[in-house]
Design brief:
Layout lengths: L24 H9 L4 E3 L9 H8 L4 E3 L7 H5 L2 E3 L3 H13 L1 H18 L2 H15 L1
């Protein structure tokens, strides 16, 4: 309810904000594919969003306002945790203006996500876990 105003026709929104409505994972992947990076403004109460995984699998670095799930972004140098809107603006600007750094962070994000979120690998880990407790 807090954000319903965004979807209302005629809402007083910034000119560069367009509400897209609900999107399938495939549609989101298409949007992410054409982006330079993921900007994440959600709070920690919202949990680990799939948007992180979707962006990382496509080699996109992350600039997150406050949330670093399990310190993954910081520990693996997958982007920045800004902690203020002004710092977020600087971090986004820096990644836009430095394609080499953006590419380097994006490559780390892709490698990390392919190792951590690979379905086949995770199935093997789960099977091994079940085998160990049987």
């Amino acid at each position: 309810p807090r954000y319903e105003f965004i979807s209302r026709t005629g809402a007083d929104l910034p000119k560069n904000l367009f509400y897209l409505g609900p999107k399938s994972p495939e549609q989101v992947n298409g949007i992410v594919k054409s982006s330079l990076l993921l900007v994440h403004t959600c709070s920690t109460e919202e949990g680990f969003g799939n948007s992180f995984i979707q962006a990382w699998l496509q080699g996109k670095p992350t600039v997150s306002l406050y949330f670093d799930p399990h310190s993954i972004i910081t520990r693996n140098s997958l982007g920045y945790i800004s902690e203020s809107m002004e710092q977020m603006r600087r971090d986004v600007k820096h990644l836009i203006e430095d394609p080499a750094l953006r590419s380097e962070m994006g490559a780390r994000a892709r490698n990390f996500s392919q190792q951590q979120f690979n379905i086949e690998n995770n199935i093997k880990v789960l099977e091994n876990f079940f085998s160990s407790i049987l």
